[in-house]
Amino acid sequence: MISDATRARINELFERYPDRRSAMIPLLLLLQEERGWLSPETMREAGEVLDLPPVRIYEVATFYTMLRTRPCGKYLLQVCRNLSCSLVGGEGVLRHIEKRLGIHDGQTTPDGCFTLMTVECLGSCGTGPVVQVNGDYHENLDVAKLDKLLDSLT
Ligand code: FES
To answer: Which element (helix H / strand E) includes 78?
Structure first.
């Protein structure tokens, strides 16, 4: 059940979007903020609010990597795997995270602290390698900077 606080924020959203369906992504982000991820039940509820069948919600939720359709850890590490980042060491950053945390793409550490995900271009190609952690960008990464970052999160 959607909390009263989130319901109030959804109603604010609808004031800005005359066609409720246009508010789908911000609405899903609100629900994700409340619950951590978009479960099938949450997508069903979103469909009810938007007067859309759940499959329409699912189609959008599974397209955008900023929307999570699986539970994830306290920190979601999204590593850019596109060309510009790869040319400046993105693969090495990814391998170092995998080695240090003992997880691969799509997996979560047993303590529930980190989830690792590779993503398409994060739009910060000039400052690669880039890793997004819960929405915050960390750029120009190398192994030393990455270790410092991970240390600060544990
Ligand atoms: S290629 Fe990595 S941010 Fe664009």
So the answer is: strand 75-80
